[in-house]
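[agent] plan:
  1. take the single chain provided in the ticket
  2. run structure prediction with default settings
  3. attach structure tokens to the ticket
  4. add a short note for the reviewer (M.T.)
[agent] executing step 1
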Amino acid sequence: MPDWLVSFVAHPVALLMVGGGAGANARYWLGALVRAAHGAAVFPWATFAINVSGSVVLGFVAALFLKHPDESRRVWYLLLGTGFCGGFTTFSTFSLEALELIQTGHPWTAAGYVFGSVAAGLLGVWLAVELAGPR
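[agent] step 2 finished; step 3 output follows
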């Protein structure tokens, strides 16, 4: 493979673009799948599932690549952690949905959503880091 092509493919902009695009597509399709399964539920299950699963994926990616001693392996964090997970997770949507739940008279559902998302996200990252084990 020509050096210029390797440089282009491994460039941070290309890695972020590919990872972010794949993450955004995964977010769309997982959200559609969860919404189809739960219908028009008050609780935003699709965003909840995306945020929790994104936390698990990010935990594994961080544990495996973020502080890897081989610099060439750290580039995978840029592709999968920053790119894919950045395009996949939906914290801004989460915040908007929590506000909408409060504004529509569902403050306890909003509180459960916020607490459950944060707790499950933390648990997911912790579990993934533990399962990935020491390097």
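[agent] step 4 note for reviewer: The helical segments are 3-9, 12-38, 45-66, 71-88, 91-103, 107-132.
[agent] ticket updated
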